[in-house]
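Structure request: TonB-dependent siderophore receptor, Methylorubrum zatmanii.
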Amino acid sequence: MTAYPPLFRLSSIAGWLLTGTALAGPALAQQASTTLETISVEADRARREGAQPSASAPLPGAANAVGVGSETSGGGGGPTGVVGYTARGSAAATKTNTPILETPASVSVVTREQLNDRNVQSLNDAIAYTPGVSSNVFGYDPRFDAFFIRGFSVTNVGVYRDGLRQPSAPFAIPKVEPYGLDALTILRGPAAGLYGLGAPGGIVDVTSKRPTSVPFGEVWLQRGKYDRYQGAFDLGGPIEQTDGQLSYRLTGLFRQSGSFLPGGLDDRAVIAPAITWRPSADTSLTVLGEYLDSTTPGTASTYSNFADPRFQKTNLFGGDPAFQDFTTRQYRIGYAFEHRFSPDIVFRQNFRYQSVYADLKYTQIDTISPDLQSAARSNGRITDTLDTISLDNQLETRFTTGPVAHTLIGGIDYTNSRFTERGGFLVVPSLQIGGLIRPNYGAQFIPTPDYIGGGRQRIEQLGTYVQDQARIGSLILTLTGRHDQVSQFTQDYTATTPDSLIGDRAFSYRVGANYLLTDFIVPYASYATTFAPQLGFDRAGAPFKPTTGEQFEGGIKTQVPGTNVFLNMAVFDIVQANVLRPDPVNPIGFQAAIGEVRSTGAELELTANLGRGINVLASYSHVDIRTTKNPGAPETVGIPLSGIPANTFTAFANYAFQPDSRLFGLSLGGGIRYAGTSPANDVPGSFRNSTVTLFDAVAAYDFAKVDPRLTGMRLQVNVNNLFDRAYFNCQAGACYRGQPRQVYASLIDRW
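Returned structure:
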């Protein structure tokens, strides 16, 4: 029986859209079986038995029965061996396609199927079920993808795309649209040995959707609360009459939406083309592009006054619809090139140019009158522009020296970022709040301030790195070293401070060891360092010392034999030195790089595909992060950092009924997210954030059960915060509301 054409099938439910009940969201899984070069456990068994495996040995278990998938490669190509929610290999931790079992670090992969089942709407949503990650520190704040790993902020220095770092400025922070991703990889712990500047907590590397060798297409239509309308499409396949040398992918999304914040928009438009040229089996060039336009509220916090117990946290929104739009426009163009000189010698080059323009308009509440009838306010407008060029060259070779098998990678990378900022600020009319009951949002004209200050900055980074993964029997040693040279030029447009040109050099490294007790039980240990320059000057006019960090980590990785069930356990101890703190001599006017923070903890993660249609995630994390040195404020020593829950637990499962069931076509799933208590401010005696437990749910139905001609059509409903739990999270004295219950109903057609 012939399937209905896509347009006919969509038109048959167009009435749902007209009545406000039809729907869309990200796509159901699109991975496929892709053979990539890898170091595998099975290959290691062959070594022990005397055989010499080829560098192009396929990753065992790489087949993915879900559908179409991108053709990827190492050095930014994403995970391998994907089955449901599980992945066997990832290039993020080593820049080679190494099995996660054999990586001397804690690594998690969020696959496309997981993104689809949970219908994630942001990067924060995507990593919400990952151990060690605090993604809800700032509650509901659609302006940025702001999160912490092992207690350290990753927002500005730890987000990578296709293996290249995405530098960011105070407000020109590149946005990540999850519908445009094949997968995400979270690498916990310092990554400076390969990547250079970064946070000691870890990095997140997102993998862009890439062209496929199999033709496919899909359309998503979505409807949600707060007048949310969203449409998305994803098309790809080989280009005709090119003998398979050219293939393409075109991904797009358009959204118009409000939010529970008064007058707050969450609009977005994205288009992402990609094309791959493969003139031979040994050479490939993939060009990746994107344009994104986003509008969100200029602020997301509620009013808090920690000097008055009555107002420690309130529902009083700090912004105003009359002046609060935050607009981001960004575009990028780049490529991933790979050439295989021989089975054991591969060259890769990854390049990207990215431009981000951010226009922030915000209003804030400064004080509330004693009679609770009005609130004094100010506003500001800040425009940031950030242009970045990133280039990474890698040469990977494989060889043996006696009984030792080596995978050696060396590289040179370069990043050049140019940043400009202008800003202005005003005192604006007070908000009439009527005793915190009926604030008159949007009732008054709020003027736009003139620019009164600004500046520009240029940062250049040149790094050289080398890594050797050496195998001696069951022992795998990973030795990584990197040298970075960074220069920063800063100019103040107001000429109140002189221009400055400073430079830093640093050597970072990682030493790791994995031991294969069996093919599926692998303990590991590692030591790694990190560093990052810090902007500004101390009381003497000298530039701040770079912040440095080190980590000890150990753990056990397990795969249940003959299954796609993975269990990872890790413990860690991270120290970050030269953290900026108030200067002991002049704490009001200056800072000094004299602080120190220590984070210790443990993580447990289960990822499993238990059979056709059964996927399970579960994780537990304990993070204890405290100030250990602060001469300017010794009373803060020993106090946990605010907003970071000490204990978190997450679990998510999804089940698709199989053809032998009467409920075939139906899928049901749900999740739980628990976050423990944490201090609300970084001062002694601060009140604490409450524990929060949130529930999510998903139900979907594939119409192929009703009529085979409707194969590929799917209705899916996702509910986040199912029981509408009202909660706050406060960090450094600022409080943010969590998102109330949100319902997304999606209609998907795939062919």
